[in-house]
UniProtKB/TrEMBL annotation:
This is ribose-phosphate diphosphokinase. It catalyses: D-ribose 5-phosphate + ATP = 5-phospho-alpha-D-ribose 1-diphosphate + AMP + H(+). Pathway: Metabolic intermediate biosynthesis; 5-phospho-alpha-D-ribose 1-diphosphate biosynthesis; 5-phospho-alpha-D-ribose 1-diphosphate from D-ribose 5-phosphate (route I): step 1/1. The keyword Kinase applies. GO terms for molecular function: ATP binding; kinase activity; magnesium ion binding; ribose phosphate diphosphokinase activity. It holds the Pfam family Pribosyl_synth. Belongs to the ribose-phosphate pyrophosphokinase family. Residues 7-123 form the Ribose-phosphate pyrophosphokinase N-terminal domain.
Length: 331
């Protein structure tokens, strides 16, 4: 299956379930490594097997304790570099600090660029990530970056799990996601809508509401698509707005379900048929608190991208016939 040097899979503490799923898909065991903290909070890494002249892939997502997980990744990369690994690829399903990708106000840091610099300085040769908040983050790197898409998964879910999807409308909760929803709507052959979040007044404490800018959702199956859900406020406002505008049913499909400050019981009470997220971030705890949560498995996509990267094959083919043939084994 593989030629040349072998694949070495390493994982930090951010998402061991996803790392194990990717390893099983590839038929490659995880290389034993011990990542723990000293009593003062410093991180210590011990890799138990040789990685000399090997093709190393380190799976670490930017979730929960983001700063600790990022530091673990940097130290793992550095450890592999000094251990003479031939190539080091950081597999980051959810890229940390991706929302801080531009200087939107005075003295604001572009932290995504800083993270890119740190990864390169640590010794990273290649980055594989998924559904970047802004695709221009790839330009922050001077090394190859493969941005994988969950769009084929979303299309598969819509066509197989949503009744009457032919009469659906794809909705973006903000202007930034317009390109994402128009591409999805074109591939499904349906219409798209755009809603805008605004405050009733100039005060920061003024109540927020959403208004429909583009599209008509009346008597249609509304499918809300976004790249990230964190507090759940936008999701709640958008769902209620679509319901008030006469949508027959409302579904939500989100790439990265952070749910850092979200009240899952409140999310469960929303007039949503289903809330679909990927497992780029651990979702077991959230699933227990929300009966409407459905998890899409991205491990086949990540595993195949690792195999293709190792063998020098095209990554873009991942989103053609290969993705179409995966079916519902991704759920």
């Amino acid at each position: 299956m593989y030629h040349g040097n072998s694949i070495r899979l390493l994982a930090g503490n951010s998402h061991p379930e996803l790392a194990q799923a990717v390893a099983e898909r590839l038929g490659v065991p995880l290389t034993p490594c011990d990542v723990k903290k000293f009593s003062n909070g410093e991180i210590n890494v011990k890799i138990s097997e040789s990685v000399r002249e090997e093709d190393v892939f380190i799976i670490q997502s930017g979730c929960r304790d983001v700063n600790d997980n990022l530091m673990e990744l940097l130290i793992l990369i550095s450890a592999c570099k000094t251990a003479s690994a031939r190539r080091i690829t950081a597999v980051i399903p959810c890229f940390p600090y991706a929302r801080m990708d531009k200087k939107d106000k005075s003295r604001a840091p572009i932290t995504a660029k800083l993270v890119a610099n740190m990864l390169v300085v640590a010794g990273c040769d290649h980055v594989i990530t998924m559904d970047l908040h802004a695709s221009q983050i790839q330009g922050f790197f001077d090394i190859p970056v493969d941005n994988l898409f969950s769009e084929p998964l979303m299309i598969s879910y819509i066509k197989t799990q949503i009744n009457g999807w032919q009469n659906s409308i794809i909705v973006s909760p903000d202007a930034g996601g317009a390109k994402r929803v128009t591409a999805l709507a074109d591939k499904l052959g349906v219409e798209f809508a755009l809603i805008h979040r605004k405050r009733d007044g100039k005060s920061e404490n003024a109540p927020e509401r959403m208004e429909l800018l583009v599209g008509n959702v009346c008597d249609k199956v509304a499918i809300l698509v976004d790249d990230m859900v964190d507090t759940g406020t936008t999701l709640s406002l958008a769902t209620r707005t679509l319901h008030e505008k006469g949508a027959k049913t409302v579904h939500a499909i989100i790439s990265h379900g952070l749910f850092a400050e979200a009240d899952m019981k409140l999310v469960d009470s929303l007039p949503l048929e289903q809330l679909v997220v990927t497992n780029t971030i651990p979702q077991r705890q959230h699933k227990e608190q929300c009966s409407k949560l459905l998890i899409m498995d991205v491990s086949p996509t990540i595993a195949e991208s690792i195999r293709r990267t190792h063998n020098g094959e095209s990554i873009s083919l991942l989103f053609g016939e290969w993705a179409d043939g995966r079916g519902m084994d991704m759920f």
